[in-house]
Amino acid sequence: MRDFIIAKIKDGEICLRKEDKLIIAKNEGKEVFIEVDPQDVRTKKQNAYLWGVVYKSIADYTGFTPHEIHELFKEKFLKYTKVKWNKLYEFTRSTADLSKGDFSIYVESIKQYCRENPVLKGITIPDPDPDWWLNEPKRNNKKIS
Fold it and tell me: CA angle at residue 34 from 43 to 94, to 5 degrees?
């Protein structure tokens, strides 16, 4: 069986997620093939927009916490199934593993869902402003001129 691991390389070290450490442990003592395939994963700015604007807007409107909103929408849009040993297993992808494009589709799916859902139609979710920092009066205690 072939397993895939998603990791980050930071300061020359491989940083693994908990679930990936289990895959490594299961292969203790075995020779493995490692291929480095850099992924174009979502950016910190994309994630900040999701949590600070999209989830916050929905949370403020519904009374759920942003974390609860996160879990609900991951379940709705990032769920997938696998059949193994004649049994169906359900999984949910992590937003941290999404590419920039897939992350954008995920965010737009949430916004579209809110626009079309009769209960959530009243939510205003602002679009990201690429020049937000120009509108900030102070940044790092320095005035912007």
Answer: 35
Torsion, CA 42, CA 92, CA 33, CA 15, rounded to 10:
50
User: Is 143 contained in some domain?
Assistant: no
Say yes or no: 112 and 66 in one domain: yes
**Model confidence over 51-91: pLDDT tens digits?**
999 999 999 999 999 999 999 999 999 998 989 899 999 99
Give the global pTM. 0.63
User: Is 145 inside any structural domain?
Assistant: no
3-state DSSP: the chain helix, strand, coil percent, rounded to 5? 45, 20, 40
CA 67 to chain centre: 12
Task: Please provide residue 60's backbone torsions phi and psi, each rounded to the nearest 5 degrees.
Answer: -60, -35
**Domain range holding 33?**
1-38
Residue 142 belongs to a domain: no
Looking at the fold, whether 18 and 73 belong to one and the same domain comes out as no
Cα Rg of the chain, angstroms = 20
